Amino acid sequence: MPVVSDRLCHQPVIGAAALDCVVVRDHDHDPAGVRRERPRRFRPRFHWELLHCGITGHALEGLDARQLRPQDAIFAREAGGVRWHRCLRCDSWLPVDPPLP
Question: N or C: which end of the chain has fewer CB within 10 A?
């Protein structure tokens, strides 16, 4: 088998030579700050709040307010005649018609 030193490993080895390659290091430990781990597969986490909102509906505040105050901006905003309300459970912004006068 051909031997590739640590200094030459940055050069790509292509084809069958890559299978026969052995990396020889001058040291037995990894450089400071480098941990060699097997890469983890990305697995999205299950969010119960999304399931709850999908089954029972969103938790919206201020649907009956005729006017929005500046303090209400974290829960509801108005833009272009449409109100956007924030779900307190899943943090989604939903378009809602303003209440009738």
Answer: C
